Amino acid sequence: xxxxxxxxxxxxxxxxxxxxxxxxxxxxxxxxxxxxxxxxxxxxxxxxxxxxxxxxxxxxxxxxxxxxxxxxxxxxxxxxxxxxxxxxxxxxxxxxxxxxxxxxxxxxxxxxxxxxxxxxxxxxxxxxxxxxxxxxxxxxxxxxxxxxxxxxxxxxxxxxxxxxxxxxxxxxxxxxxxxxxxxxxxxxxxxxxxxxxxxxxxxxxxxxxxxxxxxxxxxxxxxxxxxxxxxxxxxxxxxxxxxxxxxxxxxxxxxxxxxxxxxxxxxxxxxxxxxxxxxxxxxxxxxxxxxxxxxxxx
Length: 298
Ligand code: PMV
Prior knowledge:
Blueprint: E1 2-13, E2 24-40, E3 44-47, H1 51-64, E4 70-77, H2 87-104, H3 109-121, H4 130-137, E5 140-144, E6 148-151, E7 160-163, H5 170-183, H6 185-208, H7 211-227, H8 233-244, E8 249-253, E9 260-264, H9 270-277, E10 282-284, E11 294-296
Parallel strand pairs: 3-4
Antiparallel strand pairs: 1-2, 1-11, 2-4, 2-5, 5-6, 7-9, 7-10, 8-9
Helix pairs in contact: 1-2, 1-3, 2-3, 2-4, 3-4, 5-6, 6-7
Bound molecules: (3R)-3-hydroxy-3-methyl-5-(phosphonooxy)pentanoic acid.
(3R)-3-hydroxy-3-methyl-5-(phosphonooxy)pentanoic acid is lined by residues 11, 15-16, 18-19, 84, 86, 124, 127-128, 130-131, 170, 174, 254-255.
């Protein structure tokens, strides 16, 4: 048996627009998905959850390596599912890595990234690849479709992650944006331009550690996400509550329509804001910018 793990992520700026080529800023989270892979009698079998992306990623690796025996895979994940924290990408990458280790005895990087993307496609409509790139590479930085992830050392100590508890399918939200773009092409183009400018400013603010600017830009990014129709009443409630409690900025992260909201606050205020939000939502202050895919002891 061989095992591998990969981290979840939060998109700080630029989700949805990244599907259309705008850069997005993303960091990995200290929550991991671990996959156990072993040889079995025949076929690809996934014990318990996440069966589709896990099986597809493993199958992709097995096929490319010419392995036609059976595989049994098991998942252990700390990443909440379907709330925008990249759980399907993390399990896909971890599954591909564990399968590569099992069949070839080494983690074949390019193959694992491709296989992870194949796994992600089973749950996502037209994924930009941002989730698999960060689950693979870890750390954090600027992602651009077709170019991949460019690592940056963002000066961001911590972030508040507020889980609204409302699960949704990212594919449906991406589809909703596609319909908006089709219905109002001029407006969508203007919003995209604004998003691109905002992401560039946000990159500078994160590199210099200007938390106030980061917060203000998050609020502007949330305005744009609202325009394209991916916010929701529960997201708006979490955003307003965070701001009311003294956060410097807040926005949805990932697909929207429910899922998670992120907020930044001054270092000394984080615990208080997070604690008070905890009365209404599940709140985390996870470690950021962690190691990407890696082999684990089984
Ligand atoms: O899978 P989620 O909910 O973290 O969202 C991924 C980010 C999107 O930009 C909404 C989709 C994509 O493929 O980039």
